[in-house]
């Protein structure tokens, strides 16, 4: 399964707004997408799951995707992390 | 509509004629003052009466699609609410509705519920309640305050889905209510933001709920409507029926269901007395706020948004002592532009004509965060908040300063900086203000070049080493809420320790006294704008500490003015000084002479 490691670099971490953006982006793809922090692995299309990770700034998370558009999904999610979820810091 | 109207009037007649209904008395927490008497309007709490049964194997698919359909209708309903928000609805409501929509769309809710229907043959209501409770518990167990609160959002979303499944609405009888002539009291398990929007148009005499606290939605709505509310009653929703006669005592947190006539008369007398005292207080609006020995005391209002200025003026506010500018920034996805901020500040300044308006720069980062986002700092109250937050974001800070300075051309504006702890922060802040002033000057934009700059005294470090700060600023404003929290090391929001939160601790009083004295030595004004200032039981104590400037919620102004007019300032100063020297704790009730 294609996977990438990303670092949460926006100041507030994966809280409401960033979690919402990640969830919305992930939901645009048909493939299954999971996000893992330490031992906890959740569906990246679930805002509750993503918030429950409580992934703060500088946390490393793993994104896995499986399905036809998996590579494209990973690219877009990486772009979102690189852009710090559009937050100005 | 007609059927529900008939239903409610039927129940009312039935209850009115049954004279033998026994009285029930419940004790909760009064969060909005006053007395109300009227008929109960019970809001459904679907989660409390969910049917649990197993469905036949051949009905599984039908049950699953019934649930999916309910999710979709609920989502459509929330979208319709969000699209038709009244212009005056608080901004945070829109953000909350958005979160609720995302929760509805969450596979953790939908998929798990569907699999319980499929594998365990639970009916849809049972399955979604079970999954909702599971998720709610997971959120409740989280360390972060913000995440913990999301548990109640999950509960409210599930509640809404249950109503859709049952074909009921949380307030099905609202139309009938709007047409009733009798005073009505809302009885609910809890009130969600979406219910709040639907309640806004209606006139209610009071609110009573099973859950909630002083900052719950119920309390906020009730206070803004000026009606009493009692929360944390435990089981009022199961005990009161539509049409029951209720007495709500917001002073003492008591609710009486179907009281005997004798009790009604006693409360009618109390309510009349309370109304009279409010009436008399209003007569104080235009008299001067002056102690018996002729010391003039400044009384100003704390506001959060420009539309609160009329209320402040109606209660005789002499100025705005604290405009909490961060409320312009909360509950939205983007930052307010310079123009939008300028319009808000200018509106307050113009409404107050030449009266003083003190605008506090952004106090974000602790319990208030942008777009409902919590910081992930382990201890946000000690983290990057207020001036620390602003100095780390010079562009955001400069934008706000430009907007405030431009508004200063239209009246008497003062600039208040929160959370100052060190002199280096004072220098950095002054530098930014100067650079913005030069920039405006270069552009030919007008502003008040002599604008006064003051600091909040809320970190004990500043209060202890107050002298250089009193020299560096034009005025000081004591934020008692944070000063107490930091001095005593007590998080007031933490129920485990909130009883230890003591505004009268000798250490707190000494810090307040020391700050007031430093202000007198440096000849700069010192005010108190925290909750202590608005608590009429503490007015004499603060006068005794030498305070001459108070700023508080507009609704508290007249109560405090009444205390001031009955107090003898010099006598109080002697008494309080003696007690402070003995390091006694001071009982404010013993200051009544």
Topology:
The complex is a heterodimer of chains A (89) and B (593).
Chain A: E1 3-7, H1 16-27, E2 32-37, E3 40-43, H2 47-52, E4 60-66, H3 70-82
Antiparallel strand pairs in A: 1-4, 2-3, 2-4
Helix pairs in contact in A: 1-3
Chain B: H1 2-17, E1 24-27, E2 29-32, E3 35-42, H2 60-83, H3 91-104, H4 107-120, H5 124-140, H6 145-166, H7 174-179, E4 184-188, H8 193-199, E5 206-209, H9 217-225, E6 229-231, H10 236-239, E7 245-249, E8 254-257, H11 261-283, E9 298-303, H12 309-314, E10 319-324, H13 338-351, E11 356-360, H14 386-391, H15 394-407, E12 412-417, H16 423-442, E13 452-457, H17 460-464, H18 466-472, E14 475-478, H19 480-488, H20 506-522, E15 526-528, H21 531-534, H22 539-544, E16 549-552, H23 557-565, H24 569-581
Parallel strand pairs in B: 3-4, 4-5, 5-6, 9-10, 9-16, 10-11, 11-12, 12-13, 13-14, 14-15, 15-16
Antiparallel strand pairs in B: 1-8, 2-6, 3-7, 7-8
Helix pairs in contact in B: 2-3, 2-4, 2-6, 3-6, 4-5, 5-6, 13-15, 15-16, 18-20
**Top-tier CATH class of chain A:** Alpha Beta
How many helices of chain B does DSSP assign? 24
Proportion in β-strands of chain A:
15-25%
Shape-level CATH architecture of the largest domain in chain B: Alpha-Beta Barrel
Quick check: average pLDDT of chain A? 89
**CATH 2nd-level architecture of chain A:** 2-Layer Sandwich
Q: What is the rounded Rg of chain A?
A: 11 Å
The order of strands across the largest sheet of chain B is 1-8-7-3-4-5-6-2
Give me the oligomer status.
heterodimer
Span between N and C termini of chain A? 33 Å
CATH homologous superfamily title of chain A:
HPr-like
* Large-scale geometry of chain B: globular
Strand content of chain B: 5-15%
Structural class of chain A: alpha+beta
CATH topology-level name of the largest domain in chain B: TIM Barrel
Low-confidence stretches of chain B at least 5 residues in length (pLDDT < 50)? 1-20
Largest sheet of chain B: 8 strands, mixed
Q: How many beta-strand elements of chain B? A: 16
Main sheet characteristics of chain A? 4 strands, antiparallel
Q: Tell me the number of structural domains of chain B.
A: 3
Please name the fourth-level CATH homologous superfamily of the largest domain in chain B: Phosphoenolpyruvate-binding domains
């Amino acid at each position: 399964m294609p996977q990438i490691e990303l670092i949460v670099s926006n100041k507030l971490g994966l809280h409401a707004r960033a979690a919402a953006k990640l969830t919305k982006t992930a939901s645009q793809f048909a493939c299954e997408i999971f996000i893992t922090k330490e031992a906890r692995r959740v569906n990246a299309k679930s805002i509750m799951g993503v918030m429950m990770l409580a992934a703060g700034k500088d946390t490393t998370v793993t994104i896995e995707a499986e399905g036809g558009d998996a590579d494209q999904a990973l690219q877009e999610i990486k772009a979102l992390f690189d852009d710090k979820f559009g937050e100005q810091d | 509509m007609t059927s529900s109207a008939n239903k409610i009037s039927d129940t009312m007649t039935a209850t009115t004629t049954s004279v033998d209904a026994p009285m029930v008395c419940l004790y909760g927490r009064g969060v909005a003052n006053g007395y109300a008497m009227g008929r109960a309007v019970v809001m459904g709490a679907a989660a409390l009466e969910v049917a649990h049964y197993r469905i036949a194997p051949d009905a599984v698919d039908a049950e699953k699609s019934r649930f999916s359909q309910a999710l979709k209708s609920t989502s459509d309903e929330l979208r319709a609410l969000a699209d038709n928000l009244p212009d005056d609805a608080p901004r945070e409501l829109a953000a909350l509705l958005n979160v609720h929509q995302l929760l509805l769309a969450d596979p953790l809710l939908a998929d798990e519920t569907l699999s319980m229907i499929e594998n365990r043959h639970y009916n849809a209501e049972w399955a979604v309640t079970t999954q909702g409770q599971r998720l709610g518990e997971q959120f409740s167990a989280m360390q972060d305050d913000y995440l913990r609160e999301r548990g109640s959002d999950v509960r409210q979303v599930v509640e809404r889905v249950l109503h859709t499944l049952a074909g009921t609405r949380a307030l099905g009888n609202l139309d009938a209510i709007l047409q009733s002539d009798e005073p009505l009291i809302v009885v609910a398990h809890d009130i969600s933001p979406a219910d709040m929007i639907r309640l806004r148009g209606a006139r209610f005499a009071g609110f009573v709920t099973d859950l909630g606290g002083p900052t719950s939605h119920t309390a906020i709505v009730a206070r803004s409507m000026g009606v009493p509310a009692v929360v944390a009653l435990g089981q009022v929703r199961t005990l009161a029926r539509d049409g029951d006669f209720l007495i709500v005592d917001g002073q003492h947190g008591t609710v009486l269901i179907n009281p005997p006539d004798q009790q009604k008369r006693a409360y009618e007398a109390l309510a009349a007395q309370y109304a009279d005292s409010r009436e008399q207080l209003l007569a104080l609006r235009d008299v001067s706020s002056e102690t018996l020995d002729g010391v003039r005391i400044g009384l100003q209002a704390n506001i959060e948004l420009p539309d609160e200025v009329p209320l402040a003026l109606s209660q005789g506010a002499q100025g705005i002592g604290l405009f909490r500018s961060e409320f312009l920034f909360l509950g939205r996805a983007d930052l307010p532009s310079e123009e939008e901020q300028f319009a808000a500040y200018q509106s307050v300044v113009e409404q107050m004509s030449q009266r003083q308006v003190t605008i506090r720069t952004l106090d974000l980062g602790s319990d208030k965060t942008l777009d409902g986002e919590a910081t992930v700092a382990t201890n946000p109250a000690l983290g990057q908040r207020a001036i620390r937050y602003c100095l780390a974001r010079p562009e955001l800070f400069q934008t706000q300063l430009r907007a405030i300075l431009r508004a200063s051309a239209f009246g008497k504006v003062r600039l208040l900086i929160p959370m100052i702890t060190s002199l280096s922060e004072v220098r950095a802040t002054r530098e930014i203000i100067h650079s913005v002033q030069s920039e405006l000057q270069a552009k030919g934009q007008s502003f008040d070049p002599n604008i006064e700059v003051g600091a909040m005294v809320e970190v004990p470090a500043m209060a202890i080493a107050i002298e250089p700060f009193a020299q560096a600023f034009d005025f000081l404003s004591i934020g008692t809420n944070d000063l107490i929290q930091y001095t005593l090391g007590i998080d007031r929001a933490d129920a485990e320790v909130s009883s230890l939160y003591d505004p009268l601790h000798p250490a707190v009083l000494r810090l307040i006294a020391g700050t007031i004295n430093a202000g007198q030595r440096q000849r700069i004004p010192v005010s108190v704008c925290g909750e202590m200032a608005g608590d009429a039981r503490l007015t004499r104590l603060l006068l005794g500490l030498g305070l001459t400037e108070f700023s508080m919620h507009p609704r508290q102004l007249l109560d405090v003015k009444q205390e001031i007019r009955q107090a003898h300032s010099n006598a109080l100063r002697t008494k309080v000084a003696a007690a402070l020297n003995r390091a006694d704790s001071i009982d404010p009730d013993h200051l009544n002479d």
